[in-house]
Amino acid sequence: MKKNKWGLIILGLVIFIIVITFPFWYGKGKTSPAPTLSLDTPAIAQLKEKRCVEDTSFMRESHMKFLGTWRDGAVREGKRLHTARDGRVFEVSLSGTCLKCHSNKEQFCDRCHNYLGAKPSCFSCHNIPGEVKK
Amino acid sequence: MKNISISLIAVLILAALPTGLSTLGLSGLITNILPYVAIAVFLIGFVFRILLWAKSPVPFRIPTTCGQGKSLPWIKSNPVESPAGYWGVIARMAQEIFLFRSLFRNTDVAIVDGRPVYGSAKWLWFCGLLFHWSLLIIVLRHLRFFVEPIAPWIGALSALDGFFEIGIPTLYLSDAAILVGLTFLFLRRVVVPQVRYISLFTDYFSLLLIAGVVSTGLLMRHFSPADLNAVKTMAMGWVTFSPVVPQGINPVFYIHLCFVFVLLAWFPASKLMHAGGVFLSPTRNLANDSRMRRHINPWNAPVKVHTYEEYEDEFRDKMKASGLPVEKE
After folding, report:
1. DSSP string, B255-297
2. For the domain with range B2-297, which CATH number is right: 3.40.50.2300, 1.20.950.20, 2.30.30.40, 3.40.710.10?
């Protein structure tokens, strides 16, 4: 193996560089815009104050944990009402509260989830109002 | 203790670095400049170290056999542990790289009744394997932030890793496994007196730095989430060479980034280079064929020799005349 030592070294290094730079060549350098979330639903258009249960940055970062506490509270302790930090009261319901406003799951939930490869299992049980199960 | 303390202080300073930089208004340094510096240092340094090692002469085979070498046909040989050919070497290297075969031979010694007693010690091998495979899976899973659209195999790997769907967001098994592995590797250095005695700054620092990466990552996944949308937008900015400065990402994320960049830049200068070095282990990647082939040291000085054949040719007549036996008539 001594004779072709340099061949193997170069081969190894080329493979190493190709593998490490995978993200740089995989997308062929095309820029892909970040997903834009559509808030254009009839329910949101009717709202006077366009405000989710909590403020936007909190919902962006922590909605999954937040929905987790909703689930645990509702299913295990029967807490069906949630009082937000600013005193407004919401029914604890994914289909009834969240999806009432965000009725456009494909233009809202799915856009970020697909972009980030997040596969929440919410909708394997919860139904999406207005969507016929495929 | 001194080495542990210095390593810990170094990691804590690195953790404080992003906050310090952003108060100075230099957060663009971390998000736009350091990623390129880190990956460039990593790649160039890695290649440089490998070429440096590749230049070292290895004129002879180092047959540290762990099995019977190939010799006579009726002696059963072990073609993987003591390979004589190309494919055997590939099998041995694959065992070493994917399963840490050498570490599996690790033994422990204890003094029982005044005599040393040797036994098998597999914990280091097991936790080492756990740590390295978890690290690989975690790095591959992170590719979801670096490619768009996400390649199907990345999603499949994540789904497999989060198979049990424990908690929201799902606990990845590799995250739990890497914590177990890291904890063992660190405690081993702290608890075992012999290992503590030979442990240096670089040993503790590697472990603590990776522990820092893992803990900030887990913190963001399970306790104080970061805005992943902004994170991926930034990461995609790097790979398309159009970096953007993100707004309002959780400070823990910048600590995570800072740790990763330091890890990347420090990698080629440290013992972590065993990642590349393992491929160049002469006792593993050279066939044990010293009995089959003559390996001549290429830089041997030319020695003037006079073989017996030449001697006989020169003196054959005289040898015959004096009655000495000759091999060729």
Report:
1. HHHHHHHHHHHHGGGSGGGHHHHGGG-HHHHS---TTTSPPPP
2. 1.20.950.20
Of the candidates B165, B240, B295, which has its C-beta nearest A121's C-beta? B165
List, in sequence order, every residue forming a beta bridge with A90; answer none if it has no partner: A82
Alpha helices, H only, chain B: 2-23, 27-28, 34-55, 86-99, 101-104, 123-141, 152-161, 173-191, 193-198, 201-222, 228-239, 251-266, 274-277, 282-285, 308-321
Residue boundaries of the structural domains of chain B: 2-297
Tell me which chain B residue has its CA closest to the CA of residue A14: B47
Confidence of residue A3 (pLDDT cuts 50, 70, 90): low
Please report, for chain A, how many H helices and E strands are present, in that order: 6, 2
Nearest CA in chain B to A118: B155
Distance from CA of B95 to the nearest CA of A (A): 18
What's the pLDDT tens digit per position in A70-128? Answer: 999 999 999 999 998 888 999 999 988 898 889 888 889 999 999 999 988 888 888 87
Please tell me if residue A64 touches chain B, with a CB cutoff of 8 Å: yes
Residues of chain B where predicted confidence (pLDDT) is lower than 50: none
Domain boundaries, chain A: 40-124
